Structure prediction request, 50 residues.
Amino acid sequence: MPLFQQSADGNIQVVQAITVNSAPIGITYDNDTRQVWVAAYSGSIQVFQD
Prediction:
């Protein structure tokens, strides 16, 4: 899962790439906890700390 960042000049670059379970179907970010949640078709949910 690549993590992208947009700079002030509008360019977008990859900041980090993370391996996730196969067939991811959803991703969300929780601003309060600074966590990224990734759901997969297998029923798994992975949580990554930002």
Observations:
- The two ends are 13 Å apart (CA to CA).
- The chain is about 0% helix and 60% strand.
